[in-house]
Amino acid sequence: MNTNINLAGIKMKNPIVLASGTCGYGRELDTFFELNKVGGLITKGTTLKPKDGNPPSRICETPSGLINSIGLQNPGVDHFIQYDLPWLRKQDTAIIVNACGSTIEEYIELCKILNEQDIDGVELNLSCPNVKAGCLAFGTSYEGVKEVTSKVRKVLDKPLIVKLTPNITDITESARGAEDAGADGISLINTLLAMSINIETKKPYLANNMGGLSGPAVRPVAVRMVYQAAKAARIPVLGMGGAINGKDVIEFMMAGATAVAIGSGTLRDPFASVKAANEVEQFMAKHKIKDINSIIGSVQLHG
Amino acid sequence: MASIVLAKLVKKDIIRSDIFKFSVHAPEIVNTTKPGQFIEIQVSDEVEPFLRRPISVYNVDKENGILEFIFEVRGIGTKILAKKEEGDNIDILGPLGWGSFNYEGYKNIAVLGGGIGIFPLYELCKNAKNDANVHTYLGFRDERAVMLEKEFKQVSSSLTITLDNVDGFAINKLRDDLEAKNIDIIFACGPLGMLKAVQELAKEKNISCQISLEEKMGCGFGVCMGCAVKMVNSSYYKHVCKEGPVFEASEVEI
User: Fold this and answer.
1) According to the 3-state scheme, what is the secondary structure of chain B?
2) pLDDT category, A41, cuts 50, 70, 90?
3) Model confidence band, residue A289 (pLDDT cutoffs 50, 70, 90)
4) Catalytic residue check, A128
5) Of A24, A31, A61, which has the smallest distance from its Cβ to B51's Cβ?
6) What is the count of structural domains for chain B?
7) A56–B224: do the CB atoms touch at under 8 Å?
8) Could you give the domains of chain A?
9) B1 to chain A: closest CA residue
10) Are residues B178 and B149 in the same domain?
11) Shortest Cα distance, chain A CAs vs residue B222, angstroms
12) B50: nearest CB among A32, A44, A215
């Protein structure tokens, strides 16, 4: 049975990836399981300089999911390189750094630095809904995605995956923007902009008023967008959005994803990704699937 | 180090209406649990509700592998949890929180608790009493809200119970006793107003103080950065589940 996949030039032993923002820089989850059990890890969204993040409350549970507004709290790329990367590199898993900036210049500067590091790839975050400047502002149009991506492409030789937002009318436009700018892959979906109000206080539960919705609640939207993006672009897709178990991973792959990230599922169960990897193998055995790559995009639409 | 166990509910007690005490068999967890730490419970195998429920540890019996926690039914998660019966298994992640109560080296300890915030203080009193005088002050809204009086009496050198509507707040009794009892540290858990007041008191009297905090939590083990607490004189946030839930009172802005 072959579970190896190649995502945008990044070789992985299985198609399960830990999603950005739900695995830190790996150390906490390493206390539960060996990180070599998953194909890859995408770091917490990392910026050029340290970022404090948003005031609490930052989390609000909603039907079958949650809204978060962390605001990209992270120690900055220098800290990551000095303290986290040396340890993380020793773990036998692909390392992808989620990179975010508030200006195009910041994205370029950050990716120049990342290009010199021993990492397997970069996930360019053009879709965080929780910071005031940058990120999402670039991610909501063909031109915006293409502009940032092509400028980053010039300074980054490593595999470049562009993370797309679902807060857009037509996902195929941003997918094509990434492809036309020379990205090696796309990942989607980031969280859906959302809001939840405490009717007793008349105030939103989140201090930032709005945040990003994730969890099983968004999965059907994510599967649909992965399907559309995979059809529209020729570069591989890293699917995510409410995938919490092996069954969900298979669904995303059938929709067209080459690999699938487990995000909110880890918050509920730190072992979710490891269990998903086992469940994928069980599915393959049951259905006599020799190569996991054979199911990518295998959905059969109704006539 | 935290682990996930399916712990059997061996005893279910009703403390008072809507407040339950569960005793579960979880030797893997109790072996490493320190006072002040918490657990996270997945109340349903389905994805609704989605997140685990953080609940503080009330008491551990290392010899018999028993972990006790007390919770109030407040929302959908605790409502489902309260329906579990003796013999049922409960999915528990723990122990969690790298910031536990640090009581070693202190001789005259004051423990201040309010309402349902008193639960994590029992294990602290029990352990601290081995080497120190433990003076406990528990505040309740009114007579009907009082609970666990007998239990706390057993693990305290002295126990003062106050009723808000009769005696005023518990912290005022503590303030009166500080010098006479030679208090060298205060530990507190309770409503935000109480924690702010004890923070002020500790600063004014220049006494060490550690407080246990609450914040809406995503993961419980330090990856989502959800349960943020602002540090004093800084724009930096630490996290209740990781650096906490117990913090130096002088370090946090609440």
Assistant:
1) CCEEEEEEEEEEEEEECCEEEEEEECHHHHCCCCCCCEEEEECCCCCCCCCCEEEEEEEEECCCCEEEEEEECCCHHHHHHHCCCCCCEEEEEEEECCECCCCCCCCEEEEEEEHHHHCCHHHHHHHHCCCCEEEEEEEECCHHHCCCHHHHHHCCCEEEEEEHHHHCCHHHHHHHHCCCCCCCEEEEECCHHHHHHHHHHHHHHCCEEEEECCCCCCCCCCCCCCCEEEECCCCCEEECCCCCEEEECCCEEC
2) very high
3) very high
4) yes
5) A61
6) 2
7) no
8) 5-295 (3.20.20.70)
9) A31
10) yes
11) 7
12) A215
Chain A residues within 8 Å of chain B (Cβ atoms): 21-24, 28-29, 31-32, 44, 52-66, 68, 70, 73, 205, 215-216, 244, 264, 266-271
Residue of B80, B96, B223, B241 best to disrupt the A interface, most CBs of A under 10 A = B223
Chosen from A41, A42, A43, A58 to mutate, greatest number of chain B CBs within 10 A: A58
| Contact indicator for B161, B146 with CB cutoff of 8 Å | yes
Residue among A60, A100, A128, A135 flagged as catalytic: A128
Domain that holds residue B122: 108-208
Compute the mean pLDDT over every residue in chain B, rounded to the nearest whole number. Answer: 96
Q: Do A56 and B228 touch (CB under 8 A)?
A: yes
Segment B103-159, tens digit of pLDDT: 999 999 999 999 999 999 999 999 999 999 999 999 999 999 999 999 999 999 999
Same domain, B89 and B120: no
pLDDT at A127: 82
The string of pLDDT tens digits covering residues A148-192 is 999 999 999 999 999 999 999 999 999 999 999 999 999 999 999
A295: three-class secondary structure by DSSP: helix
Is the per-residue pLDDT at A130 higher than 80? Answer: no
Quickly state the pLDDT bin for A137 (edges 50, 70, 90): confident
Q: What is the CATH number of the domain that holds B148?
A: 3.40.50.80
For position B1, what pLDDT does the model report? 76
Please give the pLDDT value at position A134: 64
Interface predicted TM-score of the whole assembly (ipTM), two decimals: 0.94
Residue B69 belongs to a domain: yes
Q: Flag whether pLDDT at A132 surpasses 70.
A: no
Chain pair A-B, CB pairs under 8 angstroms: 98
| A21: closest chain B residue by CA | B224
Share of chain A above pLDDT 90, in %: 95
Nearest to A52 among B4, B48, B237 (CB): B237
Domain match, B138 and B56 both: no
In this structure, are B143 and B192 located in the same domain? Answer: yes
Residues of A in contact with B237 (CB under 8 A): 52-53, 56, 73
Instruction: Select the residue of B4, B42, B222 nearest A28 (Cβ to Cβ).
Output: B222
Close Cβ partners of B166 (under 8 Å, ≥ 6 residues apart): B142, B143
How far B1 CA sits from the closest chain A CA (Å)? Answer: 7
